[in-house]
Structures are given as C-alpha cells and as structure tokens.
Amino acid sequence: MKYHQQRKRTGKSEQRRSVSLLERIQPDAAGVDCGQKSHFVAVPPERDPEPVREFRTYTTDLQRLAQWLAQCGVKTVAMESTGVYWIPLSEILEQHGFEVVLVNARDVHNVRGRKSDVKDCEWLQQLHSVGLLRASFRPAGAIVPLRSYLRSAQSWLRSSQPAFSACRRR
C-alpha cells in the first residue's frame, strides 16, 4: 500500500513538510523502518513527489525498493536493527552499491510522539541527513557465516549438556 493511499484512509488530507534547522551533511540519505511484513522508506522530499513509500518484504519488492532509491539519487541508507528483518534488505542494498548504516533502535526512539512506521522512517532519514546517527558494528561479509556457525555450535552444546549430565550420573 502506498503512503498517499494510507493518508486517504486515515482522513488526513496533506503531508506535513518539516524544515530542518540543522545543516544537511548527507543530502543523499534515506531512512528505512524495517518490519516483518513491510518496510517504510523515506527519501528527501524534493527527490520524489511521494517521498515515503511502503514496500513488502518479498525479494522482488526489495529489488524495487533498491531501484526506487537509485532513481531518487540516494547513496546512503539508515535502518533500524529490528530483529532479523533488516538482513535481506541490507544485503540487497549493498549489492546495489548503497552505503547501509545500521542503527540501534534505542538510540533513535528517545523522542516522544514518533510511534508510526511512517514517522519512524522520516525521522531516520532526517537524523541521517544531518549526521546524527551512529552506525552499529557489523562484521565483514566473510565473518558473518562463521559467526553464525559458531553460534549454532554453542547453542547445540548448551542444549546437549543436560543429556551428558544424565549419562554421567548413571
């Protein structure tokens, strides 16, 4: 569902345009609010007549999202590290050559009143464009599968410990 359709349903007639009092350090920044079923994406308002859009989480939709960001001239994208929902989008955006900045949701949501997906992605875009977001640590691409294997092995060892303890008692 597109943002303007959602606005019509809620009865709000016009989009609010906010003016930033801070200098834009990264004018080519976008913000993404990642969710389980859809992602909301905000670009600078002057880049597109519809600066906030909703995309489903299917691969074809994520590819369309990346193409739209490229059409809007976006070079860097900020997104929250919400669960595991950001991972496929991050990989696709990096494949398309975007700089992906992963931020912790706790660092972003210390402001009252920003409780909707649309407001969240707009807020991320504004903070990222003025350089107020701090990127979370993300290991290099080759390290990610290794960390996953190690976590699986540790989990397997933890779950098997009660069985070994029971065998020793006999």
Q: Helix and strand layout, with pairings?
A:
Elements: H1 3-10, E1 29-33, E2 38-42, E3 52-56, H2 59-71, E4 76-80, H3 86-95, E5 99-103, H4 105-108, H5 117-129, H6 143-169
Parallel strand pairs: 1-4, 4-5
Antiparallel strand pairs: 1-2, 2-3
Helix pairs in contact: 2-3
Which keywords apply here?
single chain, 170 residues, alpha/beta, Nucleotidyltransferase, domain 5, 5-stranded mixed β-sheet, 5 strands, 44% helix, elongated
Please provide a written account of the structure.
The chain has 170 residues and is an alpha/beta fold. It folds into two domains: 3-12 and 21-137, Nucleotidyltransferase, domain 5 (2-Layer Sandwich), CATH 3.30.420; 139-170. The protein is built from six helices and five strands; from the N terminus they run αβββαβαβααα. It has a five-stranded mixed β-sheet with strand order 3-2-1-4-5. The longest helix is centred in the last third of the chain and has 27 residues, at 143-169. The termini are far apart.
Give the proportion of residues in helices. Answer: 40-55%
Structural class: alpha/beta
Give the count of structural domains: 2
- Taken as a percent bin, the fraction of beta residues is 5-15%
Mean model confidence by pLDDT: 80
The value of Rg in angstroms is 20 Å
Outline: elongated
The H-and-E topology, N to C, reads as HEEEHEHEHHH
Low-confidence stretches: 4-17
Total number of strands: 5
CATH fold-level topology of the largest domain: Nucleotidyltransferase, domain 5
For the sheet with most strands, the description reads: 5 strands, mixed
DSSP helix count?
6
Cα-to-Cα separation, first versus last residue: 61 Å
